[in-house]
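step 3/5: co-fold with 5-S-methyl-5-thio-alpha-D-ribofuranose
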Amino acid sequence: MAVPDFKDYKPLSLDSVAKRLATYPGVQERLGGKPESWTVREVGDGNLNFVYIVTGPDGSLCAKQALPYVRLVGESWPLPLSRSFYEHAALVRQDKANGSVPEIFNYDGPQALIVMENLSPHVIWRKALINREQHDVAAKMVGEFAAECHFRTSDLALSAETKKAEIAMFAGNTALCKITEDLVFTDPYYDHPMNSWTSPELDETVRAVQGDPQWKAAVQELKFIFLTRTEAMLHGDLHTGSIMVHKNEDGTEDIRIIDPEFAFYGPMGFDCGALIGNLLLNLFAQDGYPGRACVYQDWLLEQIENFCHAYASRFSELWRTERTGDAYARSLFEDQNHTDASEIALTNFLHRVEMDSLGFAGAKMTRRIIGLAGVADLQGIADPATRAACERRALALARMMVVERVELGSLGRTLEHAERILKDVK
Ligand code: SR1
Ligand code: MG
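step 4/5: write tokens
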């Protein structure tokens, strides 16, 4: 598969969506009625694209089209349409590796358009977390999703030849990687014009972050890992806004992972860190909202543990049962009756992913407080002084996670510090 030619690309509008979609196989049958009778809503609340929900008498679907620029900023920030190609390629691989992604109905490469299942009545997990709703299996499901996608696209499962071809396939998603390289690892650490924070309340803290030599050095170490370690195909933007949740009437939950346009080959800990960091941001933001936060905060701490536990245990199962790749070959371990050595290697492997995850989580938290594109969890706190207080606490933990991650040594110890920071202010 190669990146399509976009010479005939036409951005959709509310008026043109139905007519265009009607030309794709299966769409008319799925929605029923005539295209003129379909309703079309634009629902995209992400930073990059337009997303339409199209509803007919018999059903609905979701159409996501990339724009040649960043939606959040406008036409002054061009962004290649090829991100839709990488998103589709990632969705196909994630579906094969795990399955908890929306079903794809049509992919129109030259129009940078993916027509997929409308996840309804699902909500974005970030919104549910802000509203203190509990979806008890989401963290576990996302942990398993990440473990399965990482393991099955890595050298642990693939031959070196196939894995190198996969790296080559995603290597062109450079513009999206560059967004992360700049917005996560670079811009927040100096006076960049696109930075944005709660000012003036947080000004002094931001000056302290930007003037902290250890913080700067440690973040560049993480950036180097991000740039160079092609361990597995990552989702690339696995925050709580990329997860949709729904609780059925019988209490079971349907959890789906969406929006992998930032997919590339990178370090496994980057995805894990994205989720941990965003759950921690929600944890610290909770004190900014009315009502007692502590019961929900306890639940959130449990979810972070659940995510990491699910990741490690699913990864371990796959290590023991699906290790067919060229790395840590069974021929050298189990086939030599060296299962003990295989278990040591697994423990070391997971420990390194855990340490990377802590660092990346801290970097992700910092960028959402100081850089472009903040999160609704914190931005929804109306009083700037209260918001800044929550942000200061989040940054205190973020610094530990970035600078002292090896000394911290585990997620458990990190969460103890999070609890201490929360208690110090109560
Ligand atoms: C300009 S894009 C800003 C952010 O939105 C996405 O969700 C990514 O996290 C990106 O860094
Ligand atoms: Mg997104």
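step 5/5: annotate
The chain has a mean pLDDT of 97.
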